[in-house]
Amino acid sequence: MAPRANWKGFLRLSLVTCPVALYPATSDSEKISFNQLNRKTGHRIKYAKVDADTGEEVDNEDIVKGYKVDNDTFIEVTKEELENVALESTRTIEIDEFVDRSEIDPRYLIRPYYLRPDGKVGHDAFAVIQETIREMNKVAIGRVVLTNREHIIALEPLDKGLMGTLLRYPYEVRAADEYFDDIQDVKVTKDMLDLAKHIVNQKAGHFEPDKFEDQYETALIDLINQKRAGKPITAKARPRGENVVDLMDALRKSIGREATAPTEAPKKTAKKARKAAAGQKEMLMPIAGKKPAKETAAKKPAAKPQRKSA
Length: 310
Prior knowledge:
The structure is a single chain. This protein is α+β, with helices and mostly antiparallel strands. Helix content is 28%, strand content 22%. It has 8 helices and 9 strands. The strands form 2 sheets. A 7-stranded mixed β-barrel has the order 1-2-6-9-8-7-5. A hairpin with a 2-residue loop joins strand 1 and strand 2. Helix 4 packs parallel to helix 6 (247-260). The longest helix is centred in the last third of the chain and has 15 residues, at 265-279. It is extended.
């Protein structure tokens, strides 16, 4: 079942307008998530919204937004007042300009969305806008309001639709110099660079997302399955970084190690990873509260659900 649209409105290029819907292009719902429990009872922890001074619980209808002026002063802003400052981008993505994709600094990228026509009308206008962006090999820049905030959105063709990527504003991006100024200026010799390039060539490949496995997610599933089956949990040794004494020697040894690696290993690894990526890893039914290990292990595990592919 397709997810619900995060936003519905209109896409406009000058006088060409069509109804569109915006859908999230990514999801974290397949990741392992944890609840907080009371160690003594095994019951879930619930959070209540309370008055900071009286300590009394406050109903949702009595909660309003407030801007903090100082420690004891807040400016109250109602929902109606926020709606009164609604911008046109609340209901319309107006394309303001077209830029080259290479001009967009990766630091400004936030998250991707899918944009498609909404309903049976407007497909012709959508196709004109989509195909124009494709033919011009440009990225369309517009504005859209999501979660009561106006965002910059970059639109580019993807299959029969558009991919919209939210962009950060300049004030949200930190300057790099405060982090990089203390990095020493090092002269890299040609020999070192040649050896490093050789390592890169040995590891050259193509970006295939299906090859990648979320190893931490897999380890979490293993941990939960072991606890579900009542097996003892043992800590794994952590890898230790080694100080490089002779950089040239380390580069030469790296080349030797890559050269002696089995040629069939990458294929086998890729095949295994693809299977894991599609469903990541099968998992037993989740633990329900606190139960003795023996009782848990004695129960026959339920059918192992397969993870949905992204």
